[in-house]
């Protein structure tokens, strides 16, 4: 074991974690990009609800767009990446589109409709880049260490999510203007794009892709992958979005407006600390067990919110949920997919999950408007427990 150094494109840390150089490069890009995106994410819910006065149902619609519109270009971009074997090119286009949208936010002014359109375009950029990026991670790491590789990437990604709200808090405190947050976010996004262009290397699969990309029905012909997709989609339908979680925390605790961008920090800190250990644990003990652990943490989040629990309990539990499910799901799916269609398969899984979470936001927003926030949380928690009967499909 090496103490430090580089061999065959693999960096080895003092802790003995062999991490491919391309994974580290992609993690760095995600870190910088997430600083940019989370600056916007940290202030947008409160800007829309507290400043523009959107109702829970209207906010659920915008939040659903934020989550679900990633599906618009996800499958098309993934198929193009597989067909051309140019995953870096397609992912780079997605990063560039999202960066441009940061600058478009100030131009939207106070119009909720225009903000929704910019948000939709931003999320389309995320949809375009996510599957090619995850395919590059999958192709850059040893199959037996995919959980660790995705854990390292997600930890770096979430470090950006940790820093983004801090940056938004600092900019908002210094300027008092949301537009300043959006402009600084654009500059940071450009830096992430530059790192991507200079340091990320493309990866081609040993087997060339077929002349025509496998359609969704053929990818879903594999029973294990099909059940994995169904599990992810079912759980996505009963996952309350982070934005609603933070709004409920603000409602329960009566936090001052200037402190609201700091709420995601607890989630991100727990994610950063747990992503790599849980990824390694998933490689050793089974990805299904870790996946279930994450969703049990999500049920605990719902229970704590319903009981008006403190933010110091809710936020770490939410971070545990993401650390135990996000990268673990991609690590479970990668080995099930055929050569030449890995990006398309991951995009299909992510698209189903994104669409499910879009409808989840609409459903929960409607439930909150009709019955209040607590009954919806109880229904969502019961749904998560019911869906966990499928957990054995996550290997």
What does this molecule look like?
With 395 residues, this protein is mainly α. It has a single domain (6-202, 216-393), classed as MFS general substrate transporter like domains (Growth Hormone, Chain: A), CATH 1.20.1250.20. It is built from 15 helices and 3 strands. It has helices spanning 21-51, 56-68, 71-84, 87-107, 112-140, 146-175, 178-199, 216-219, 223-237, 242-253, 264-285, 287-306, 311-333, 342-371, 373-387, and strands at residues 6-7, 10-12, 18-20. The protein has a 3-stranded antiparallel β-sheet. A hairpin with a 5-residue loop joins strand 2 (10-12) and strand 3 (18-20). Mean pLDDT is 81; it is low at 1-16. It comes from Nonomuraea indica. It is found in: Cell membrane. InterPro entries: MFS, MFS_dom, MFS_trans_sf.
Topology record:
Layout: E1 6-7, E2 10-12, E3 18-20, H1 21-51, H2 56-68, H3 71-84, H4 87-107, H5 112-140, H6 146-175, H7 178-199, H8 216-219, H9 223-237, H10 242-253, H11 264-285, H12 287-306, H13 311-333, H14 342-371, H15 373-387
Antiparallel strand pairs: 1-2, 2-3
Helix pairs in contact: 1-5, 1-6, 1-7, 2-5, 2-14, 3-4, 3-5, 3-14, 4-5, 4-7, 5-14, 6-7, 6-11, 6-13, 9-14, 9-15, 11-12, 11-13, 12-13, 12-15, 14-15
Domain Major facilitator superfamily (MFS) profile: 22-395
Membrane topology: Multi-pass membrane protein
InterPro entries: MFS, MFS_dom, MFS_trans_sf
């Amino acid at each position: 074991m090496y103490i430090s150094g580089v061999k065959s494109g693999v960096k080895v840390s003092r802790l003995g974690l062999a991490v491919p150089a391309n994974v580290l490069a992609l993690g760095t890009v995600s870190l910088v990009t997430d600083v940019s995106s989370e600056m916007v994410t940290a202030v947008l819910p409160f800007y829309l609800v507290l400043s523009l006065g959107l109702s829970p149902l209207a906010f659920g619609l915008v939040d659903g767009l934020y989550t679900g519109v990633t599906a618009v270009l996800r499958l098309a971009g993934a198929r193009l990446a597989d067909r051309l074997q140019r995953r870096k090119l397609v992912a780079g286009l997605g990063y560039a589109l999202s960066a441009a949208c940061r600058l478009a936010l100030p131009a939207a002014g106070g119009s909720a409709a225009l903000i929704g359109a910019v948000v939709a375009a931003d999320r389309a950029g995320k949809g375009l880049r996510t599957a090619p990026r995850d395919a590059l991670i999958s192709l850059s790491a040893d199959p037996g260490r995919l959980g660790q590789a995705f854990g390292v990437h997600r930890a770096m990604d979430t470090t950006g999510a940790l820093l983004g709200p801090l940056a938004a808090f600092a900019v908002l405190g210094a300027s008092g203007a949301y537009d300043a947050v959006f402009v600084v976010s654009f500059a940071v996004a450009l830096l992430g794009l530059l790192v991507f262009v200079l340091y990320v290397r493309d990866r081609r699969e040993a087997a060339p892709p077929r002349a025509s990309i496998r359609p969704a029905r053929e990818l879903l012909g594999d029973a294990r992958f099909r059940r994995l997709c169904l599990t992810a989609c079912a759980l996505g339908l009963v996952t309350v979005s982070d934005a609603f979680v933070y709004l409920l925390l603000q409602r329960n605790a009566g936090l001052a407006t200037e402190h609201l961008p700091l709420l995601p920090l607890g989630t991100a800190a727990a994610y950063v600390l747990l992503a790599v250990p849980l990824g390694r644990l998933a490689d050793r003990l089974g990805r299904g067990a870790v996946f279930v652990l994450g969703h049990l943490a999500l049920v605990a989040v719902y229970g704590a919110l319903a009981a008006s629990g403190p933010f110091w309990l809710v936020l770490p539990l939410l971070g545990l949920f993401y650390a135990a499910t996000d990268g673990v799901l991609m690590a479970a799916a990668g080995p099930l997919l055929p050569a030449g269609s890995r990006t398309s398969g991951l995009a299909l899984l992510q698209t189903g999950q994104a669409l499910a979470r879009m409808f989840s936001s609409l459903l929960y927003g409607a439930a909150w408007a009709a019955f209040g926030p607590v009954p919806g949380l109880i229904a969502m928690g019961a749904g998560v427990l019911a869906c966990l009967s499928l957990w054995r499909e996550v290997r």
